[in-house]
Design brief:
By secondary structure, this protein is α/β, with parallel strands linked by helices. It has 3 domains: 302 residues, P-loop containing nucleotide triphosphate hydrolases (Rossmann fold); 117 residues, Domain 2, N(10)-formyltetrahydrofolate synthetase (2-Layer Sandwich), CATH 3.30.1510; 83 residues, Formyltetrahydrofolate synthetase, domain 3 (Roll). It has 19 helices and 24 strands. Strands 1, 2, 3, 4, 5, 6, 13, 14, 15, 16, 17 and 18 form a 12-stranded mixed beta sheet that branches. Strands 19-21-22-20 form a 4-stranded mixed beta sheet, with helices on both faces. Strands 7-10 form a two-stranded parallel ribbon. Strand 13 and strand 14 form a beta hairpin. The longest helix is centred in the N-terminal third of the chain and has 21 residues.
Length: 558
């Protein structure tokens, strides 16, 4: 067992030139747009629909997590290493980390231990500038909106009180949630309430992740609903002639990024929406790129399967016509103890009683995955504090449900520690003749779609709507947006909309507070509970532990 930190492990590896990684998936050097020696962008021309149909797509998700997360990225990377170890050609396709969590709670999001993507410092920081481009495109639209309101000769007649569009920044900064702009006199704009979201919550990020090509990206950007006129008519980004300039800012960001794992296997990293407030999965383009160049693609969706996996399967797969063959549910003994009632200081204390009680949470996720006609594999992400009794209980309990549960030791051993998991996944892919099916049809009535998710996935007994949500439903119908997908905004800490209800809650109601419209992404976003789009920093941010020496070597990232 290594005592090195994640960044020390990553820095000890001799990276291969990115052109060597590209040759492993038959990509010519001329097709690479290099960002230094270890990163490159891939042209969309490499996407091959015929290969996509034959590819094996594996989704990694998790049970309802503890605040520390349960290691989906680490397991995704370890599984990819393990698949390559057993002779399968596999690529991992991941989201890009947001600077908010990097400097806030997590300290990084490039995997951990001996299951990492590298160069991890670059990936965790500015990478190839995609987030910056999303931010600039978003804020260009904000500037154009306020310019139109200010300009008396403008014919759009936007009512400043109805503007829905917010500015974004990729940082946890609670002071920017609610602000007043346009103060200081007539030359400085029209005063109005505004606010900032974090960049992963921007509809531009959601659109980037849903777009199929540059033309589709431009069309979607033009369809963004920004507000209403004084006559209550909708105003779209295309009315501000914004879509071309926004697309220009995103012309490179639309191309997926190629990097490598610690063991020199290909990794594609692209897009980065959160799963509690957005769709929580990488771009459709990146997933299709992976399937075009590899036999197996391992990808992940954020937070528990009630959020990221539900959206991956109902939104992304349904729209992009993807056919996932297996879902890996990451579980930790620590999280099972948590759902069995353990307090945070008891997470590392063995308790078979708490694990048995907490298993109800994992069992519900297993049931949910099967509702999409896909067979799950449970990956027990190994920790030193796990007892044999607890691990064996999970394996035996899963077996009683006809689910294979495998100890995953990718963090400690890399691909060698994930070979059992890789074999279990291949067994499902090659021997389960199931065909993925979505839970709902996009064309169903809005309330029916929300009901389906709330009752089937969360286990709620009913759904209640605030007066504002009811008004939102009428607006959605008036605008003709009833056939959009549903992208729930909900706490990641519970199946319910109450983050205190751990385990497998029953007989609860969920309340839809309001429903936002993301017309460019083709989402409706029901907001449950006290969800917010701009996190704050913790009392002791991860940034405090980061250092850079006189030679530019970074420490403290994880």
């Amino acid at each position: 067992m290594s005592h090195l930190s994640d960044i020390e492990i990553a820095q000890a590896i001799k990276l291969q030139h990115i052109k060597e990684i590209a040759t492993k998936i038959n990509i010519e050097e001329d097709d690479l747009e290099m960002y230094g020696k270890y990163k490159a962008k891939l042209p969309l021309s490499l996407i091959d629909d015929k290969k996509i149909e034959k590819g094996n797509l594996v989704l990694v998700t998790a049970l309802t997590p503890t605040p520390a997360g349960e290691g989906k990225t680490t397991v995704s990377i370890g599984l990819t290493e393990g698949l390559n170890k057993i002779g399968k050609q596999a690529t991992v396709v991941l989201r890009e980390p947001s600077l908010g969590p990097v400097f806030g709670m997590k300290g990084g999001a490039a995997g951990g231990g001996f299951s990492q993507v590298v160069p991890m410092e670059d990936i965790n920081l500015h990478f190839t500038g995609d987030f910056n481009a999303v931010e600039k495109a978003n804020n260009l639209l904000s500037a154009l909106i306020d310019n139109a309101i200010q300009n008396k000769t403008n014919t759009l007649n936007i009512d400043a009180r109805t503007v829905l569009w917010k500015r974004v920044i990729d940082m946890n900064d609670r002071a920017l949630r609610d602000i007043t702009i346009g103060l200081g006199g007539r030359a400085n704009g029209v005063p109005r309430q505004d606010g900032f979201n974090i960049t992963p919550a921007s509809e531009v990020m959601a659109i980037l992740c849903m777009a199929s090509n540059l033309a589709n990206l431009k069309e979607r950007l033009g369809n963004i609903l920004v507000g209403f006129t004084f006559e209550n008519k909708p105003v779209f980004a295309r009315d501000l002639k914004a879509e071309n300039a926004m697309t220009i800012l995103l012309k490179d960001a639309i191309k997926p990024n190629l990097v490598q794992t610690l063991e020199g296997n290909p990794a594609i990293i692209h897009g980065g929406p959160f799963a509690n407030i957005a769709q929580g999965t990488n771009t459709i383009i990146a997933t299709k790129m992976g399937l075009s160049v590899s036999d197996y693609v391992v990808t992940e969706a954020g937070f528990g399967a009630d959020l990221g996996a539900e959206k991956f399967l109902n939104i992304k797969c349904q729209f992009a016509k993807l056919n996932p063959k297996c879902v890996v549910l990451v579980a930790t003994i620590r999280a099972l103890r948590h759902h069995g009632g353990a307090k945070q200081d008891e997470y590392n204390t063995p308790s078979i009683k708490k694990v048995k009680e907490g298993f109800k949470n994992l069992e519900k996720h297993i049931e949910n995955i099967r509702k999409f006609n896909i067979e799950p594999v449970v990956a027990i992400n190994s920790f030193l504090s796990d007892s044999d009794d607890e691990v064996n209980f999970v394996i035996e309990k899963c077996a009683s449900l006809n689910v294979e549960a495998v100890l995953s030791e990718g963090w400690a051993k890399g691909g060698e520690g994930a070979k059992d998991l890789a074999n279990a996944v291949v067994n499902v892919v090659e021997n389960s003749a199931t065909q993925y099916q979505p839970l709902y049809n996009w064309k169903s009535p809005v309330k029916d779609k929300i009901d389906k998710i709330a009752k089937e996935i969360y286990g709620a007994k009913n759904v209640e709507y605030s007066k504002l949500a009811q008004l939102n439903l009428r607006r959605i119908s008036r605008l003709g947006f009833d056939d959009f997908a549903i992208c729930m905004a909900k706490t990641q800490k519970s199946f319910s909309d109450d983050d205190q209800l751990i385990g497998r809650p029953e007989n609860f109601s969920i309340t839809v507070r309001e429903i936002e419209i993301a017309a460019g992404a083709q989402f409706l976003i029901p907001i449950l509970g006290k969800m917010m789009r701009m996190p704050g920093l913790p009392s002791k941010p991860a940034s405090e532990n980061m250092r850079i020496d006189d030679d530019g070597v970074i420490s403290g990232l994880s």
